[in-house]
Amino acid sequence: MTIMALDHGDKRIGVAVTDPSDSIALGLPTIETDDSEGEVDKIVEIVLQRGVTQIVVGLPRHMDGGEGQRARKARGFVKRLRREMPDVEYVFVDERMTSARAKRALTAEKARANVRKDNVDKMAAQFILKRFLTRDNVEPDEQTGRNV
Fold first, then answer.
1. Annotated domain spans of the chain
2. Eight-state DSSP code of residue 119
3. Distance (Å, rounded) from C-alpha 1 to C-alpha 56?
């Protein structure tokens, strides 16, 4: 069983998947967003290639735990994914501070600015997947109500 994590942003989608033992989050190339079905098609392709059975999506929350426009966009994105892949299980994970954490980690590694920009979303998706694997801040699936 392979698990995928997505960090859905305005410009890019960070993607990470588990290794065969479900213990390591492996970053994949980011997907450019364009609000068309093209980004969904790319995710469907990865799901089919890698045998993904579960998709973890970062849910942007305010520091007080509330949801705003970015959270509504993430939920809308999952609805689009669900139409194309109804058999996949979807789980939201609180993604607060994952992008900031990724930026700090890349800065600490002294990565060049263009490398940091290209890797922030991928690393944020890895952090989201790691958070899920440790079952930290996981929200139940909207359709089934199950918490994994």
1. 2-139
2. H
3. 13
**112 φψ region: left (φ > 0), alpha (ψ -120 to 50), beta (else):** beta
Q: What is the rounded CA–CA span in Å between residue 105 and residue 64?
A: 24
DSSP per residue, 1-44: -EEEEEEE-SSEEEEEEE-TTS--EEEEEEEE--SSHHHHHHHH
What's the confidence (pLDDT) of residue 118?
62
Q: What angle do CA 24, 37, 77 make, to 5 degrees?
A: 55
User: Model's pTM, two decimal places?
Assistant: 0.78
| Domain with residues 2-139, CATH architecture | 2-Layer Sandwich (3.30)
Q: In what order do the strands lie in the sheet with 52-59?
A: 25-32, 12-18, 2-8, 52-59, 89-94, 138-139
Distance CA 18, CA 25 (A): 5
Q: What span, in angstroms and rounded, lies between the C-alpha atoms of 24 and 80?
A: 27
